[in-house]
Amino acid sequence: MKDNEARQVGRQIPITSDLDIVEARMAARTLAAKIGFTGANLVMIATAVSEVARNIVEYAKPGEVILSVIENGPRRGLEVVARDNGPGIPDVAQAMVDGYSTSRGLGLGLPGSRRLMDEFYVDSKAGKGTTVTMRKWVPEK
Ligand SMILES: Nc1ncnc2c1ncn2[C@@H]1O[C@H](COP(=O)(O)OP(=O)(O)OP(=O)(O)O)[C@@H](O)[C@H]1O
Ligand SMILES: [Mg+2]
């Protein structure tokens, strides 16, 4: 978080099951709409949140998704932190490549989510768990 930014936590959603993924997706969409996102941006945020939550269920449960409203001067945005204490990702750069999957998935969850959001950071090491932080700023009118 930079000096000129502020954050207010909105929701914290524990993630263990498919139902929790749905809950996180809906909560993100609701909070995003409340702070001014519309249309396709709401779909992009909901999609990215369900991908990172699904990764927790598939590889690292339990974990949590934390949704916050962020501000930088006049700009507002949504910050999504998805974190777990699972096995971690040994090679983050490799996990960010389209099509890379250890589970015969499409390997699009992480790289796809990065494209849907404005900012995207993965902090992970083998044995240390994973924290994905992603942000999207409300477009200026
Ligand atoms: N939270 C996590 N903990 C441990 N490993 C993870 C986590 N999230 C992702 N990974 C690893 O990173 C790889 C890439 O993740 P990504 O979501 O891009 O693809 P996928 O889950 O394999 O397939 P898809 O999401 O397209 O169904 C996964 O196969 C898995 O090895
Ligand atoms: Mg995935």
Radius of gyration, in angstroms, nearest whole number: 14 Å
| Number of discrete domains | 1
| Mean pLDDT figure | 96
Count the DSSP helices.
4
Q: How many strand elements?
A: 5
- Low-pLDDT sequence parts: none
Bound molecules: adenosine-5'-triphosphate, magnesium ion
Listing every helix as H and every strand as E from the N terminus to the C terminus, the arrangement reads EHHEEHHEE
At the first level of CATH, what is the class? Alpha Beta
Major beta sheet, strand line-up:
1-2-3-5-4
Broad shape: globular
CATH topology: Heat Shock Protein 90
Major sheet characteristics: 5 strands, antiparallel
Strand content: 25-35%
Can you put this structure into words, describing what you see?
The mean pLDDT is 96. The chain has 4 helices and 5 strands. Helix 1 packs antiparallel against helix 2 (39-60) and helix 2 packs antiparallel against helix 4 (109-116). It is globular. Strands 1-2-3-5-4 form a 5-stranded antiparallel β-sheet, covered by helices on one side. It has a single domain, classed as 2-Layer Sandwich (Heat Shock Protein 90). By secondary structure, the chain is an alpha+beta fold. Strand 2 (63-72) and strand 3 form a beta hairpin. The chain has helices at residues 18-34, 39-60, 92-95, 109-116; strands spanning 5-15, 63-72, 75-84, 119-124, 130-137. Magnesium ion (MG) is lined by residues 51, 54-55, 105, 109. Residues 51, 55-56, 58-60, 84, 86-89, 95, 100-103, 105-111, 130 line the site of adenosine-5'-triphosphate.
